[in-house]
Amino acid sequence: MTSSVLPAAKPGLLPLRVYYEDTDFSGSVYHASYLRFLERGRTELLRARGVDQSVLFAGEAGVASYFVVRAMSLDFLKPARMDDELIVETIIADLGGASIKMDQRILRKEDILLAAKVKIALVAEGRARRLPADLTAKLAGHAV
Question: φ, ψ for residue 100 (rounded to 5)?
Fold first, then answer.
C-alpha cells in the first residue's frame, strides 16, 4: 500500500453530551460507548469533506462500497461521566491505496479522555477496494 504525504488541516470537531444510556453502573461512560462516539466523529468528518456514505453504499458513484474498521487502538486516559460535554476530534493522518488512517481524541475541555488510532478500509463486494480518485481528492487537502 502506498501512502501519501498530505498537508496539515484543521481537525473535525463533533460536540456531544454524555447521557445516562452511555454510562455503566458507576456513572462513568461504558467503554463500548466510546466506540459509538468515535464512529460519529469519523462519519461527520467524512460528511464535512463531501463524502456521502449513503451514496457510496447505494453505488450511485460506481460500485456499491462502504467503510469498515480494519484496525483500532484505544488509550483510555480519564473517565467521562453523565452530563459531561465532550468533543470528538478527528484528523486524517494518512491516505493509503484502499484505506484511511485517522487519529481521534475525546476531550472534556482541555482534558484528553481517550486517544485512538483508527484505520478504515473501503470495501466493495466483500473485498478491499482502492479509494476512488474523487474521494481521495476530497480528503487529500484535509490530512496531516
Answer: -130, 130
Which residues have a catalytic role annotated? 24
List the grid coordinates of 85.
460535554
As given in the structure block, the three cell numbers for residue 19 are: 447521557
Global pTM reads 0.89
Residue with cell 454524555: 18
Q: Is the CB of residue 86 less than 8 Å from the CB of residue 16?
A: yes
- Nearest residue to 37 (alpha-carbon basis) of 107, 96, 123, 140: 107
Return the DSSP state at 77.
Answer: -
Q: What angle do CA 139, 123, 30 make, to 5 degrees?
A: 80
Give the model confidence (pLDDT) of 25-41 as tens digits: 999 999 999 999 999 99
Task: Compute the distance between CA of residue 123 and CA of residue 98 in angstroms, rounded to an integer.
Answer: 8
User: All domains of the chain, ordered by start, with CATH?
Assistant: 12-134 (3.10.129.10)
Nearest Cα residue to 106 out of 123, 119, 88: 88
> Would you tell me how many other CB atoms lie within 10 Å of the CB of residue 139?
20
Write down how long the chain is. Answer: 144
